[in-house]
Amino acid sequence: MDWLESFFRLRERNTNLRTEIIAGVTTFMTMAYIIFVNPGILSAAGIPFEGAATATAFGAALMCLMMGLITNRPLALASGMGLNAVVTFSVIGFQQANVPWQVGMSVIFAEGLIILVLVLTGLREAVMNAIPLDLKRAIGVGIGLFITTIGLNQGGFIRPAPITLVTLGDFTQEYVWVAIVGLLAILVFMALRIKGDILWGILVATVFALLLGVTELPSDVVASPVFSTFLAPFQEVEGGIALFQIFTPALLLLVFAIMLTDFFDTMGTVVAVGEQAGFVDTAGRVPGIRNILTVDSIAAMTGGLFGASSITTYIESASGVSEGGRTGLTSSVTGILFAVSAFFAPIVAMVGAGVVIPAEEQYSEMIGSGFSVPDEAFFVYPITAGALIVVGFLMMRTVREIPWTDFEEAFPAFLTIVGIPLTYNISYGIGFGFISYTLIKIFHGKARHVHWLMYIVSLAFVVTFIMPYLQSLVE
């Protein structure tokens, strides 16, 4: 194995083959929950579950290998939590209420392409400087609350209600107890500092679901991969190529909003993992950052191309680094394990299986209240609900970095944080933050402190919000 040591420069990085393999396995264990969670989230928007499972596994495998071989850094990638919720609930819309899922994947493909251009042209610094740091932090926190809300809903902890909007779920239902056991298991494993805590918690919830009959053992363990979601942006839908259908004001705004979230989340992850691994210099710069960001932007495009949602660098890479991983061999091992998992789709389907809740049961609190009640059945995913809640919690950590005593910075951040989950729309929450930030700066006599890009984007959000009114005037 001398060629491995030479290619990955193991001795130079003070590591060895055994350490890198263990680190790669550890990273995979902490990330493997995405194989179960991502298809479950995406399938809520009508994306074929088996195809999404194949795309998730192969997409992560390809990009982990590319990151390892090109950058030689222990950074692993997979479909991003938060971004997959954006695709499902904001871009596509629940039960395909807004746009076909192929068009949703085209949005991801386009935002990845834009990020790639920004990286290759060196414009990333300009984009980073245009968006206030505290708004960037608030977007991540807001998405964390959004994911937690989805987890609470899909686990049956909460359900719709009149006046109060939500109320306590029905704890007589067995699927709710599956979600409770899954959440408690993850918390216990986290408290005991067991690596792969989220994955192990999902497995505990799966066993409990099998015992209660909430899910069933598959007839097969191994199955051929399903590639139905691949090349999604170039599939024909509603009489045209999906990619060409993103050129509407609403979808283009989503392209920009997702681009911001994806781009800045990656920057924070790379710096955080880099500091732990020791490859961040004293000035806070990451050597070879352009190659890392190039691979990450290609990963976003690949996620859209495969139908796996945006693939991005994972903060869970830090778990492998904590085991001594220092080179691209760590992420390469992780990639190989993701590739192997693609052939176990029946197991993935068992874990990510949804439970059908009749509309009259899910919306029982609203029946007879005068509120409109959907006719369609509701789907919940109790086995992975606990994972969503915990991941949402992990994304909340940066809230402490926001200067809450500075009104000019804190209030726009606050509107962003509450706007995202309460409107169930990432871009609307971002719009609240951008508009309020720009207006507050203007009224405080600090208009020149606002980047010109902020004015353009804020104006675009204003137009989006008042579009229904403008349309009514035309009619």
From the structure above, extract its key features.
20 helices; two-stranded antiparallel ribbon; 475 residues; globular; single chain; 2 domains; mainly alpha
Give the gist of this structure.
The model has no long low-confidence stretch (mean pLDDT 84).
The portion of residues assigned to helices is 55-70%
Largest sheet: 2 strands, antiparallel
* Whole-number count of domains: 2
Order of helices and strands: HHHHEHHHHEEHHEEHHEHHHEHEHHHH
**What would you call the shape?**
globular
Number of helices: 20
The number of E-state strands comes to 8
- Determine Rg (CA atoms, Å): 22 Å
Structure description:
By secondary structure, the protein is mainly alpha-helical. It has two domains: 2-401, no CATH class; 405-475. Helices cover 63% and strands 5% of the residues. It is built from 20 helices and eight strands. It has helices spanning 2-8, 17-31, 33-43, 49-71, 83-92, 101-121, 124-130, 133-154, 174-191, 197-212, 249-277, 289-306, 317-322, 328-341, 345-351, 359-362, 382-394, 407-423, 426-443, 452-474; strands at 77-79, 158-161, 165-168, 236-237, 240-241, 311-313, 355-357, 378-380. It has a two-stranded antiparallel sheet. The protein has a two-stranded antiparallel sheet with strand order 2-3. A hairpin with a 2-residue loop joins strand 4 (236-237) and strand 5 (240-241). Helix 4 packs across helix 15 and helix 9 (174-191) packs antiparallel against helix 10 (197-212).
